[in-house]
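User: Can you predict the 3D structure for this chain?
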Amino acid sequence: MASLSLIKISFALSLFFFLLPSSSSSRLSFTTLKNHHQSLTTSYPQSQTERLRSSFNLFPEYQVNIIDNEPGFTPGSLVEKKFSFLAASGSSVEDLGHHAGYYSLPHTKAARMFYFFFESRTSKDDPVVIWLTGGPGCSSAIALFYENGPFKVANNLSLVWNDYGWDKVSNIIFVDQPTGTGFSYSSDEVDIHTNETSVSNDLYDFLQAFFKEHPQFTKNEFFITGESYAGHYIPALASRVHKGNKAKEGIPINLKGFAIGNGLTNPGVQYLVYTDYAVDKGLITKEDQDNINLLIPDCERTTKSCQTNGGDSCLEAYEACTSIFDNILSVAGNINYYDVRKQCEGNLCYDFSNAVTFLNDRTVKAALGVKNLSFVSCSSTVYNAMLNDWMKNLEVDIPSLLEDGIRMLIYAGEEDLVCNWLGNSKWVHALKWSGQKGFESATTTKFVVDGVTAGDLTSHEPVSFLKIFEAGHMVPMDQPKVALQMLKSWTEGKLAA
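Assistant: Here is the predicted structure, written as structure tokens:
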């Protein structure tokens, strides 16, 4: 794949310069950037926060972007510009259809949501897809540059086309959310969200503004996708869109389905099978499993309390249930828990630092319309703020979506421990809906891509579960051709054909 020239960018200056806050002489006069390291909720899970972030080699200089005294906040306004990182490719800005923008969230004090939008390389009639990265608090730009966006970042910080970018079969949106993630920011800490109601309302408001800005796409089918903690975001957003459509709240959004990759959706089910998966993969022994399983009753009790009572009981559930995961790791040793075939070497289980360096370049930020902000790859502030949400069961609104014919695809790379295929299969099979018995009795078939068996597929009516072979937590990164074909077949209603 040939490297494509970017905007001319000089990297003669030290990287350290780009990541530190600018001196007062070089700041925009109306902004003061705060360095927020404190937790908004509690400090006890900091070790897990740091472990999750360090395993991705993500250490943003700032934990969240809060800008003091930001003038001109107009709730509901959307400012978008077209850009091109591929000037030497022969395509014009208009031809490429690459957009970046900010949306001023109307139900916040002063939050602005950043997004990328890439029109389909194939047809503008292709479905509109929104991608949400998890964390909570990790930017969707990580997926954009390393999984399913139009291009990837090479080691020399040039861009190369991604032959399996999802923009080949869809018009795709990548959003930095919740507020404080990526290039999204606010001038008030109160805009850092703590629950799915606030998160889904913001995304719904954004989609209303997006389709108002791009009315030519309102007729297109719309699908919600993402991975990991987006197993919480996606059902909440799908439910919010569906309710908005039914109530005729605004522009009708042509929602046809939602897909979750290696997600955390029903922790009360998923945490309980960690040891089953670990034994099956040879990470722990049966004796280890018996010992670790002594923690399960406390996890079950506290999770039920969280669902009923919320608040501090959810933090108690988080602590009780993550102890199961932590004890597996203490036995398994230095594994990459996003892909158990691999070992972690230092903090470099995955090295996404090229994208962070690229996005923190001043010329790149200028092309995207980003102000004097540091790119926050994964925000521990957002992560900690969402801890009361972590153990909530987000499958509760899914049955009503299925009954109305909205399609659900749950897919999982088989080598991921942290959101493993077994836990996802368990909650999907246990889901109470009118087609549950039909799904449980459905025959599992092979998912074949270009003549090669790529996974095991179980489908019944609007529900599909796909275990993908030789992939970890990030399926589009590990199996890009398979992931692209999966999206194409599913959005066309042909996945089980």
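The CA atoms of residues 198 and 432 lie 26 Å apart. The first helix runs from residue 15 to 19.
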